[in-house]
Amino acid sequence: MNTVVIKRGIGQIADNLTVSKPLSLAVLIGLILYSATSSIVLDSLSEAYFQVSVFVAATLIGLLYFERVSRYELADVLNRFQNWQVPIAAFLGAVPGCGGAIIAITQYVRGSMSFGGVVAVLTATMGDAAFLLLAKRPDIALLIYSLSFVTGIVFGYIVDFIHGRDFMRVKVDYSVDEDKIEENPLLSPFYKVWMYLFIPGAIIGILTAFQVDVNQLFTIAGIEWVPAFGAACGLMAIVMWTFNPLSDIRMCISDKRGLSHRVADTTNFITFWVLCGFVGYGLLANFAGFDLVSVFDAWSYLLPLIAVVVGFIPGCGPQIVVTTLFLNGVIPLSAQIANAISNDGDALFPAVAIAPRAAVIATLYTAVPALLIGYGWLFAFE
User: Fold this and answer.
1) What per-residue confidence (pLDDT) applies to 11?
2) How many Å apart are CA 89 and CA 68, to the nearest integer?
3) In Å, how far from its chain's centre is CA 258?
4) What DSSP designation does 301 have?
5) Of 94, 179, 187, 376, which is most buried, counting CB atoms within 10 Å of its CB?
6) How far is Cα 44 from Cα 275, in angstroms, rounded to an integer?
7) Cα(104)–Cα(1) distance, integer angstroms
């Protein structure tokens, strides 16, 4: 058995985050104030909120509400039906967006899901690129979903057979005494505001996912209000994450607080990590001249392999670019399939934050079926 149990008190967590959180917020504000990076960061805040945060929140609301009315927790179901953990993980990964995949990752850390389940969920998920494909080519989306779902189940069982259920697991027991830890009282009003803003945010997020020009719909007096609204909501999420001692995802999922608090805190944690990826990719593209289109054009004979490598990049931005290239006829279906299987969307951000070694190994493992099926499709049908 490879399980390592780490016990950390809430005091130790608070001490570790005392400096890092405010420092992260200070860097973010500095990048916003700096003219050369301001637009990149503000656009990233808006995109992170509309493309990820609202969908993660919606998934969490559905799951937590189901647990409340049914009195069944996902962890209990996974522990009771251990032989079905891999198909359940693949199903969560197949949910459009990244919310289901992120939930599966947290279950692995809590000890309720096998490593094969992690591989299955990362194989099955396509992230936010799924919405673009569903809107433009639902037939291709159905094909890729079927391939990814079945591949995730088969390969997940193979990984569990080879390594065992507890491979790479670092199970963290935070020993949170909720009678001795309190939320920052100054944040209490923000939770209601957060939930009220989520409703229009989710509507805009869905419209954006299906390629509706929301800027045209909501431009008033010559001002595009949607990016400003998204950036404001994203910044509020980061501020709440910064000043809340209970904003760590490993505590938010399992504590006994209200649904809105659990959803907001967990989503804010994920928003921070997604924002890091979005800003990093934006800075790389703008200042280092990184261009995926030119990469694909220069190495056309290695397209499935390049698509797999791009799938390793955390976040949905690069994967949406790949899907856009496919829809425009720049890359073949084999490359799109390879990328869909290998990419982990935004689920990789919290995975790296929670269990970095397991996340890296799992995402590398997804390259195996991605290459096999991608090149198999290439040789068989193209």
Assistant:
1) 38
2) 21
3) 23
4) G
5) 94
6) 6
7) 21
